[in-house]
Amino acid sequence: MAVALIVAAGRGERLGSGRPKALVTLAGRPLLEWSVAALRAVPEVTAIVVALPAGELDAAPEGTIAVAGGETRSESVKRALAAAPGGDPVIVHDAARPLAAPELFARGVAEIESGEADAVIAAAPVSDTIKEVVHEDDLTVSATLTRSRLWAVQTPQIFRRAALGRVLAEATAEDLAAATDDAWLIERAGGTVRLLRSDPGNLKITTPHDLRIAELVLAERLEVADGGRS
Ligand code: C5P
Fold first, then answer.
1. Can you give the pTM of this predicted structure?
2. 161, 88 contact by CB (below 8 A)
3. Hey, which of 5, 7, 211 would you mutate to test ligand 1's pocket, going by the most ligand atoms within 8 Å of its Cβ?
4. Relative to the CA of 205, which ligand 1 atom is closest?
5. Are 194 and 117 contacting, i.e. CB atoms less than 8 angstroms apart?
6. What is the pLDDT of residues 137-188, one digit of tens each?
7. Taking CB atoms and a 6 Å cutoff, what residues make up the pocket around ligand 1?
8. What are phi and psi of 133, to 5 degrees?
């Protein structure tokens, strides 16, 4: 049986709402609650731990385990794992991705349980051409990457519990700050990470524009679920 960790302790300054991003209202509920609802619809998930800003633990949805997050995203993951009851594999998910469907979580759990990987991570093929610049203040292009080999990584990321616990315990504070995703810590330690095919619809809320798109998607989903009754 799986345990889920939702990281929701970021400040979300780029959203400009003056509130932690996970608590901003999206289609009538706090952003965080969309991920909690999706995870509750996955039968394999027996517990949900939520990492929140230290002053906002009261905002944890009923039935979830609240824990104060850390300075960096991976520090929040580490604290949530420490508070998690038994359960293996461990699903790590960003509250900032409220559109992830129960099917994606369930497919990730099935995939890790049936294979040899230490981590299975949601990702979508990129549709933009990606160029590299070395200096952000110069913007001279240094390379064009081969698009057919590139995938944009998302959450959920599903881990064998022992593997995630080990890399988080071994990481320094600098490693935790450098890790924009937890799977990188596994790769660095020589573990096996496999992609779980997802699509760009599992978008990450960063700007007010993202929030507007997510509102439209959820309004459409609610209308479909309602069967046009209202
Ligand atoms: O900042 P970013 O959008 O990359 O954050 C991704 C996720 O990690 C968000 O859901 C955010 O709430 C969470 N986070 C966290 N603790 C931090 C920083 C980010 O739980 N210190």
1. 0.96
2. yes
3. 7
4. 3
5. yes
6. 999 999 999 999 999 999 999 999 999 999 999 999 999 999 999 999 999 9
7. 7-10, 21-22, 51, 69-73, 76, 94-96, 206
8. -125, 140
